[in-house]
Amino acid sequence: MRIKFHEQLDALTDRLASMCHLAGKAIETGTDALVQADLPLAERVFDLTEQIEALRGPCEEQAMALLALQAPVARDLRQVVTGVHLVSDLSRMGGLARHVAASVRRRHPDHVTSGETLELLARMGRVAGELAGLAEQVLRDRDPELAADIGRRDDELDDLHRRLLTLIQDPSWTGSIPAAVDVTLLGRFYERFGDHTVVVGRRVIFLVTGEPLSP
Questions:
Q1: Which of 3, 110, 156, 187 lies 20 to 30 Å (CA to CA) from residue 175?
Q2: Is 178 left (phi over 0), alpha (psi -120 to 50) or beta?
Q3: Angle at 66 between CA 63 and CA 78, to 5 degrees
Q4: DSSP state of 212
């Protein structure tokens, strides 16, 4: 019975890692679409996020079934409860990637922005994709040290976000008001995506060590 239970736990973990992998692909593809003003790439992001949502239901159902039928305790209980929370985090990561793609779709065939702001957003997108890759690895390996590294790497994304906001607030910036709104929102989408990867790392630390999530 316990062997079957742990097989089911492993299957849940694998689905969660797959959601994270898809979220990483979605944010990277959305960034490519943003840089190239490429509508087909933007539409691809919506396909990827639909795949994330298709995994969400089975993950939630599996976690609820494990709680109801197996009555797990200690670390097993932490793993199931962590899985329930992770489903929401990973779904939100997909939603943020979808927002990036929606910006491209809305402004197509024009670029959403250009110049230094586009360069900064492209860098934010690359870091966000790398953070998702780290989060996926953490989910699969349950390595608390690597999980802590996510937070340190997210500092780079936060720094890029601050630089982006400083740039568009500078009186010498020549972008339009709609462009400023778009850039502000895009920066926020990337920054929040990174925040969710940090939460994934913290949840894994809780799973492995039992230490409560830090604020």
A1: 156
A2: alpha
A3: 70
A4: P
- Contacts with 142 (C-beta within 8 Å, 6 or more apart), sequence order: 204, 207, 208
Instruction: For CA atoms 146, 149, 150, 151, give the dihedral sign.
Output: positive
Amino acid letter at 159?
Answer: D
CA–CA dist 120, 161 (Å, integer): 8
State the pLDDT at residue 117.
Answer: 96
Sign of CA dihedral 184, 188, 190, 191: positive
Q: Which of 183, 185, 193 is nearest to 127 (CA)?
A: 193
Residue 113's contacts (CB-CB under 8 Å, 6 or more residues apart) are 121, 175, 179, 182, 183, 186
pLDDT of the residue at 2: 63
Residue reference for tokens 């494990």: 66
pLDDT in tens, 70-83: 655 566 777 777 88
Instruction: Determine the residue type at 215.
Output: P
Tell me the per-residue pLDDT of 2-40, one tens digit each, with 9 for 90 and over.
667 667 778 888 999 999 999 999 999 999 999 999 999
When pLDDT is cut at 50, 70 and 90, the band that residue 91 belongs to is very high
Tell me if 101 sits within 8 A of 30, measured CB to CB. yes
Query: How far apart are the C-alpha atoms of 32 and 121, rounded to whole Å?
Result: 11
